Amino acid sequence: MPGEILRQMKAAGTVNPVMLMDEVDKIGRNGANGDPTAALLEVLDPEQNSTFRDRYLDLPYDLSEVLFVVTSNDLSSIPAPLRDRMEIIEFDGYTTLEKLEIAERHVVPQKTAAAGLAPGETKLTRAALRRIIEGYTMEAGVRGLREKVETLLRKVSAWTETRGEPAPPVVDEGDVATYLGVERYSPRPTARNSVGVATGLSVSARGGSTLNVEVSQEPGTGRLLLRNQFGDDISDSAMNAYKYVKTHAAELGLAGFDFTKVDVDINITPAGKVDGPSAGGLMVTAIVSALTGRAVKDGVAMTGEITMRGDVLPIGGLKQKVMAAHRMGYAEVIFPAANLKDLESIPKEVRDGIKLTPARTYADIYPAALEP
Questions:
Q1: pLDDT tens digits for 330-344?
Q2: Of 55, 83, 111, which one is at a domain's C-terminal end?
Q3: Which pTM value belongs to this model?
Q4: Which of 31, 49, 83 is at the close of a domain?
Q5: What tens digit of pLDDT does each residue of 83-137 get?
């Protein structure tokens, strides 16, 4: 809104407030309301905001004493000139244990009162809350968890009023589907890996997630076939991975293999645009598995880019990726040894519940990822 900054400062009654701008990554999406990027550049730039001029009130004002805090779900959606003026502080998603504690201490008491139930009238067990977290939400925060708990307790309250029955004293794991319907999400089996199929890890605005690289071979002329879903970075990763396989064929159990007589087709599931420079080792594993017939080990997920010489490069988002693998039931994560320094950022409950295998070169990944 025009003039909103000075209006809020007047309401706060101070010249040095902390001012929060929520979800700044969504600015300019509604063309009918214009794009406030240019105005925000002047507001947030410490070199300019001492001479800020409010265009609506046509008044100059010194904003250098104001501490601006902006939030965003996706950094890539913020215009680059605006992003350059910000100090970026990233907050990782909650673990399942952290969500359980938040739900028990804060969400359930708040939503119980909002639903018109007396304190303690209906108790949600820890197992029921875990079922809601893992089966009905897929998020880094707890917004969806709050909505699902509120929906469940509202239905308990409504059914109590309309049916004249007392509220159930306990809602356990098996009762959740009665109120929330069929689960929307379910942990994928740990045995999804097979011949030509390997599990990788990625990071998005919603936190970490898993994906599968699927590789098949067919008679051809030595082509590497990539889908339209591949972005530039991951296309380069695929070409580097195939080059590595061909130049190290003997070490990978492919001595004498004639690459000129087959086409290698690479697909990534789930479907959708995919990009990022951290899937090289994953694609080498899937390619070698498809060409040798050796299955990728059950319960193993991996992340890390490799060079054409086979060196494993560091990646970002290790914490979110390991947490995603742990949440989905995987037993082992192979990751770049250069990221060993990041292990302390991973919650202890997650580190204790999954095997973490560092790799400096692809020679470290090869025996850990493929069946003998």
A1: 999 999 999 999 999
A2: 83
A3: 0.72
A4: 83
A5: 888 889 887 778 788 899 999 999 999 999 999 988 888 999 999 999 999 889 8
Residues acting as catalytic residues: 278, 321
pLDDT at 372 over 80: yes
Domain that residue 8 falls in: 4-83
Would strands 170-171 and 123-124 be described as parallel, antiparallel, or unpaired?
parallel
Structure tokens at 192: 């999804």
Helices (H), the chain: 4-12, 37-44, 80-83, 96-102, 108-114, 126-136, 143-163, 176-180, 232-247, 280-292, 318-327, 348-351, 362-369
| Amino acid of residue 342 | D
Q: How far apart are CA 60 and CA 117, in angstroms?
A: 53
Residue 304 CA to residue 338 CA, distance in Å, equals 10
Crossing angle of the two packed helices 232-247 and 280-292, in degrees rounded to 10: 50
Cα–Cα distances in angstroms (integers) from residue 96 to residues 87, 93, 300, 327, in the given order: 29, 10, 21, 8
